[in-house]
Amino acid sequence: MRHKSYEKHFGCPMEACMEVIGGKWKGVILGYLLGGTMRFGELKQKLPEVTQRMLTTQLKELEAHGVVARKVYAEVPPKVEYSLTDFGRTLEPILIQMKGWGEGFLQRVDHQPKVKNKRSS
Length: 121
Known about the structure:
50% helix, 6 helices, single chain, Arc Repressor Mutant, subunit A, mainly alpha
């Protein structure tokens, strides 16, 4: 978390938003949690490129911002589930629009001619 308080940063709500959902993995994590509660292992399986440490960090930050809830069950081995909070659910329209934009971008990129890198000898 970059800022302890946003009280001095009222002029930049976009910065506050990006603090919560920005980064390589947060949007993807939130997108999966839109589908319902998931265990850590399920999220890790969906995101094989992310390290366990990074996934843990991202989940802790999302929890600290109040958009993700973490529920620990007293079992052996411990069972931990993650879900969106009511506040986190308010991100749904934003995440859906981001997904749609990303789909359009990928289609656009797939249809652009490939540019070869020219190396000088």
